[in-house]
Amino acid sequence: MYFGKKIAVVMPAYNAAQTLRQTYNEVREQGIVDEIILVDDRSHDDTVAIARSLEGVRVHVHERNTGYGGNQKTCYRLALETGADIVIMLHPDYQYTPKLIPAMASIIANGLHPCVLGSRILGGYSLKGGMPVWKYIANRFLTLAENVLLGEKLSEYHTGYRAFSREILETLDWGKNSDDFVFDNEMLAQIFWHGFTIAEVSCPTKYFPEASSINFRRSLKYGFGCLAIGLKFRLAKMGLLRSELFSSTPRRGAISSG
Fold this sequence. Notes:
By secondary structure, the protein is α/β, with parallel strands linked by helices. The protein has a single domain (7-245), classed as Alpha-Beta Complex (Spore Coat Polysaccharide Biosynthesis Protein SpsA, Chain A), CATH 3.90.550.10. The protein contains nine helices and seven strands. A seven-stranded mixed beta sheet has the order 3-2-1-4-6-5-7, sandwiched between helices.
């Protein structure tokens, strides 16, 4: 519990055996996490066996590989079922440090912002942490384009370290989103569509062979998908396009197109 809020950490896992225990230990060290939920997307290593050996971890194993977005859908559904007030998505590959969990939870618990992102760009940690130069350049280009299309000012849209309030997860129709990596960007666009605000905290990041990553071909597909989402958002705000992503009515207080 933190300020009376139940905290759940969800881990979408795929072949994370080498780093899972280290990630788990550091999550526990933070002292505020009530639930740890790991959803395995048909790993080929010992991820499930290790997860089941860790005290207090709820383990859910998919019968088939559903993709990164499909994995997150299960994570958020299970977290809501436990009664979590704040849900923090953390990759079990130890690319992002669990030491930011209290800071991210505090921002939401104190009512400052309902969503918090761990940014690799703020503080210049991306290249220092080993992010490939081509990925950094792509990140900066996509972020600039998305900020223009969505009318926002995030430092990056592509981090895998995210915290959400229960209200956001109950408001967004994320069940209709992609099962692939572009799910992350669809959620951020939907958050802005409903007028929620997003905070960012500077996050040190590590890149090493065990850390999850996608290859150039899938990165290219992801990049075009992100641009398509931004364009759909802008056209939907202007009333020129009907999109399933933004079909629900924005919540009261949501900002109209700018």
